[in-house]
Amino acid sequence: MAQSLCIGFLITESAELPAWEFEILQQILNSDFATVPVFILSPKRIISSGSFLFRLFRRFENVWFRHSPDAFKLITITELLKNSSVFHSWDINSLKQFDLDIIYSSCLVSYEDGIISAARSGIWSINFGDGKYKEGNPPAFWEVMNNEAVTGSSLEVQLPKTEKKVTVYAGRTSSVPYSVKNNLNSIAWKSSSFFPCRIKEYFLLGPEIFFRKYRIDSIQNHQMLRQGKFTYPGNITMFWLFFKNIFLYIRYKFRIIFTRKRFTILFSNEQFNGKSIELSKFKALPLPGKTFWGDPFIMKSEHRQFVFFEEYVYKTGKGHISVVEMNIDNTCSDPVTLLERQYHLSYPFVFEWEESFYMIPETSSNKTVELYKSKDFPFEWEFVMNLMENIILIDATLVYSDGKWWMFGNTNFHPFTSLNDQLVLFYSDSLISNKWQAHPQNPVVTDISNCRPAGKIFRIYNDLYRPAQNNASQQYGYALKLNKIITLTAIEYKEEEVFEIKPDKKNYLSAVHTINFTEDLIVIDGILRK
Asked: Under the phi-then-psi rule, with left for phi > 0, alpha for psi from -120 to 50, and beta for the rest, what region is 403?
């Protein structure tokens, strides 16, 4: 294995880092693939501004949300500097002696162009916002005020001898509604994983293969910024935005009080062609009171069709795994409980391998990935082993391809962040194994609109397709996307979206969350419009 990466940290002259970037530094210092031999002090500190009412609004949020984990609390790292070399950013010749691979630039500072030459792979930095909000000010503010469902951030690399940047991590996560402070905290804590994840991949693959994988974008100022649309609001604008935000919050609370949105299972007797689906043809199974049914998986055995699903009971506050049999007349049997534990169970990933039936229910609340085998299909199951332990992995989904087992699932790299927008991948030569290898590109998908698993990965004409939840909405489990897997190797994963399945008034649904099928039956789960 190659020697450790040499990382330089560009920080303020006062040797301060916000808490989320301090976590980045701690992760690097505790890693086995990188060292931080030098800290670089920059006199160019970025100072935020704003109108009187904006500053008043920010103080109000700091008081109102004072118990929220503050990602921007300043931490002085003077003690850490004693064990490393310290130079100013203009001392380029002294920095070059360290033969730095990368320089990370704190969000609190800006840097001179000349310092880029001090590291062979340039300056790496986190930028908040994406699309029309990219580099907008204040960060994470306009997404809340415009009631946007998602907020973006990215890790970008300014390479030496070029005017172009490489975006090596583009993330989109759920906006925290009605609170700018909490939304900014959310994307900052989320972004604290970007740099450690990607430099580990850089270390494992080498710079040539690494940069070949990521798209190069030109550095351009967004027209929106030049027009001043997404800059600090003036007093009058801030006044109206504040009361608009309060109105939206009150409306949101009323909707929670007066509506209960329950997922249920729907089915259609048709073949799924992998190109389109007509949701208006689906019929709902009868849903018992005080429960919801979700995550349906269908399995055929001896001409009988069984639907496995999560049955969530509001009284107990957790789910268990149940099954119904679909009859020829499109009725179903009464649900039978198959698997119940002291912890929550969902997403019963059921599959057949070597003439046996297996199940991997979602057991992230137990920090395990558990494998079960059927003793008497479909009603009796026995525990085989933990494929993984001490891990939060949501909706584990397996596929066998090219002589390997591939396991997809969602996780988060920080406890204060969403579980819906970081898809990770593992692989193993054997199904019955606890030695699953993490993919170097993890997380392999980072967009909340097309990330979390939503059913079995299936094959059509030798191509693999992965269903994913589209959670880029204020409604969890809003829609489904189908992705064609382009590249699946031990060093690279790539997919492209094929089509989307969306709810609307015509198909009587307000959400559609999971899809699975046999040759003549499709099952989904969704929320019916009243």
From this structure: left
